[in-house]
Structures are given as C-alpha cells and as structure tokens.
Design goal:
Length: 464
C-alpha cells in the first residue's frame, strides 16, 4: 500500500510530454512505451487490442443494462456511498469529485465540488454513464476494476485524449470468494493534484468494506460445512462442498482423492480454501452458480476427469442457499441428477482467444507470440514468463488468470506454480518415486515439476 500514500505527489501529467509522445505512437500502432508505467502500458494494450476503444472518444457512453447483483452487493454500494459522502467536503475543497461505481464501471453516485461536477458532466463523468475500460479506456475507475489495489491515472496516461486534463485514482471492492469486482471508489481532479491523503483514504475505505465481506464469507463457509455434514449422513456417494468459485471447502475421503485436496478438513476462511486443479469441475461449478442465481431449484449434472481415472466421472451439482443467498454447492461423484450441463460451461459465453502473451521488460511492453512462451511461473505476487527472449514479468496479475486465458490454446496447468506450453515440452523425466519433471528446453535445461494431482492430466494431454 506504500504507493497509495504517494498519490498526491504525482503531477497532473507524469513524465510531461514523454508520456503523451508514447501515447501518440502507441495509438498509431507502435508497441514501444518508454517512460510509461507498466500498469498503464498494460491497460493501453487492452484498450487497443482487446476492447478497441477509440482514443479520440470525447465522452463516456451511456451504461448498458444493469447486471444482476445480490442484496449483499447493495449493502456494499450503500457502504461505499457513505464513505464517499464522508470525504465529499475534502474533495470539494480541492476542486475534486468522488464517485461510486458498480462492477461494470457504471457510476452510481457522485459528490464533490459543484463547479467540477458541472465540468465533469461535459465528459459524462456522471451517474448512469459507463467508465469501464472497455467503454472509456484507461481511467481510474475502469482500470481499478481490472487491476488489484489502488490505481492512479494522470493526464496523458488516460487512453482517451479528451480526458488528459484529469487526474483520477480508483480502487475496487472485490468479492472475497470469487475475486470478481463488486464496485469501486474513485477520486478525480481537473488539472490539479489529488490530496496527499487520497491513496490512503481509498485503501482504508475499501479495507473496511471488505472486512465485512470476509466475515460473511467465513459464516457462509461454516453453513456450507453444516449442510455438507447433513447431506453426507443421507448419501453414500463421494461428496464435497465447494464455494461459488469452485474452491473446496470440505471433502470426504474419496472425494478428496478425486479432487486432489485434503480430506475432511473444513476451510471456513475464504483465503484458505483449496483449488481442485480440475478445470472442467471448476467451470461446471461456475456455470451452476450463474444458473442457481436465476433459479434456486436448479440442479445439474455433467462429467469431468478426476485425478484417479483416465475416463470421465459423472458428477451432480446441487446449490446451497442461506437466507436466499447462494453460498456454494454440494458436488456428488458417481451421481447424475438434474439437467445436463453444456459440454463446456464456457460455451454459453464465448471468449476471445489470445493471439499473444503480454510481458513487461522494464517500461517496455513485449507482445509475445504463443509459440515463444515456454512456461509461466508464479513467484510471490508476480508471474514470470520463460520465453525465447529471456525471462520477463507477465502482464497478467495472477497465474490463475493466465491459466484461464491460455487453457484452450495449448497451455496446461501442471503445478500450483506452473503453466506450460505443451508444444514446448522436449522430454519427460521420471523420478525414483514416479514423480514427473518436464524438460522444456534442451539448451537451457529448463525443468518444470509436475504435481502428483496434475500428473493424470499431463499424461492425457501428451497421450502417454
């Protein structure tokens, strides 16, 4: 959070003309961005390559139809509104405004200096307009929804030239189970600096809001375990309870082996739950979460590969509610009850397949063809790429996200810390106890370990 407290020390146009010159070259198709911060360079890449936002857009568009949200999210919006109103006087004294958005970047409320609010309306910086990155390009509100932690966007760092006179700092409130954004807070000033306290206030306001979400998630975990205990007493099928993101909260002895997670060990805290490492199962659970949100009586079934068998196993997914709030699902193995899920849960929401992987070398953004990436490795809070151009930090904020983006284009998660390019595997080395190591490059002798629970998936993928 140290960067958050330095927000007020930045000028309205960091880097002066250098950032604007880099912006001009980038919008014309060049990829070199010297002097531009990585978070901004990555955002520019999304705006140009993925969202195709017109950099000469002069105002934010009207927000699309309201996305479904839970009553719990309404509580978050109310809390953010209270926090925003509490700082409105301070923002007004520096000719600034504070806004609250939902997860789509739609402004729900705005407070602050009346003259600045009037000026902001010329750009549609006002309620019911969308400031997501895909709608308005790089900006404090939209970029915060894409990143983790406080985000400052100043002057020419904005993707749209019409917004270059603004300085904006934003931060997102995220669901503590799924990690998806719920809403956000943003502070904006016209041709001036934000107050030095801006970053600290944003981080503090969101921390207080998410504290309540963490307590709620822990309570939901306890309720999910209680429901699992009751269901297990009635059924002899292998059983597990998972949260709405597909992470295991508890599993019996057989289900734990099938999923590759600890047995009979409750994980009430959302940060301590286990990722089964079964992409098909996680996809099916997330699909079930969407279905159950619209139909509480929904029950579904599908087939998925597990860590024990080379053929798929039938599973049934039954949603669990608490006070009309979806808290997770019970997954029964060897059981086929309810409607059949689509063969691929993601088929109901086609996604763009990446053509390149984005890496960062100092302040330069490197657009890597997929064939040049050997593997990705998680190290602390960063993801590093082993590439034909050397080792470099990935633009992706997490290995989970990168795994999701690359799962259908020849990459595979082989370990909690590694995602590999299957076409770059040169040899497979077997240890004395049967453990596998992947040799990714003859010359560099790069070795990637395969975890025990991912070994069957590796064998299937390589047909060995």
């Amino acid at each position: 959070m140290k960067d958050a407290h330095r927000f007020g020390r930045r000028a309205a146009n960091p880097g002066g003309g250098a950032v604007f010159e880099a912006w001009e070259r980038f919008v014309q198709g060049e990829d070199q961005v010297p002097g531009v911060r990585p978070v901004v360079a990555i955002s520019w890449h999304r705006c140009r390559e993925q969202y195709r936002v017109d950099p000469h857009l002069t105002e934010a568009p009207v927000a699309a139809a309201e996305r479904d949200h839970t009553p719990e999210h309404d509580v978050v919006f109310a809390e953010l509104g209270f926090r925003a109103a509490s700082v409105a006087h301070e923002m007004g004294s520096v000719s600034g405004v504070v806004t609250v958005t939902d997860a789509t970047g739609r402004i729900l409320g705005e407070w602050g200096d009346q003259a600045t609010l009037a000026r902001a309306s010329d750009f549609n910086l006002a309620p019911w307009f969308s400031w997501s990155e895909c709608a308005a390009g790089t900006n404090g509100m939209g970029t915060a929804l894409e990143a983790h932690g406080p985000v400052l966007i100043s002057g020419a760092e904005h993707w749209c030239q019409a917004f270059h006179n603004w300085v904006s700092a934003g931060i997102a409130v995220r669901d503590v189970v799924t990690g998806e954004p719920i809403g956000g807070l943003n502070l904006s000033c016209w041709r001036s600096q934000l107050p030095p306290s801006a970053g600290g206030w944003l981080a503090g306001a969101v921390a207080k809001t998410q504290r309540a979400l963490k307590r709620r998630a822990r309570d939901s975990g306890a309720e999910l375990v209680a429901t699992y205990t009751q269901a297990r007493a009635r059924s002899g099928a292998p059983l597990a309870a998972v949260d709405t993101a597909g992470k295991a909260v508890i599993a019996d002895e057989t289900a734990s082996v099938l999923m590759g997670v600890p047995a009979s060990t409750p994980a009430f805290d959302s940060t301590l739950r286990w990722n089964p490492g079964l992409p098909e199962l996680i996809g099916a659970v997330r699909y079930a979460t969407k279905q159950a949100a619209h139909n509480p009586d929904w029950v579904g079934s599908t087939q998925t590969f597990t860590h024990l068998a080379d053929s798929p196993t039938s599973i049934s997914i039954r949603p669990v509610f608490s006070s009309a709030h979806l808290i997770g699902h019970l997954v029964s193995f060897g059981v086929s009850e309810g409607v059949q899920l689509p063969q691929a849960a993601d088929a109901v929401r086609p996604r763009m397949q990446p053509r390149r992987v984005v890496g960062m070398r100092e302040n330069r953004m490197v657009l890597l063809p997929l064939r040049e990436v050997s593997f990705a490795e998680s190290e602390g809070n960063d993801v590093w790429l082993s590439t034909a151009q050397g080792r470099m930090r990935a633009a992706s904020p997490s290995l989970d996200k990168l795994d999701t983006e690359l799962a259908d284009v020849g990459f595979l998660r082989v370990h909690r810390r590694y995602v590999v390019n299957l076409s770059r595997i040169r040899e497979i080395e077997r240890g004395q106890k049967g453990e596998l190591q992947l040799v990714m490059d003859y010359r560099a002798n790069e070795m990637v370990p395969v975890s025990r629970r991912n070994a069957p998936a590796v064998r299937r993928a390589l047909d060995i």
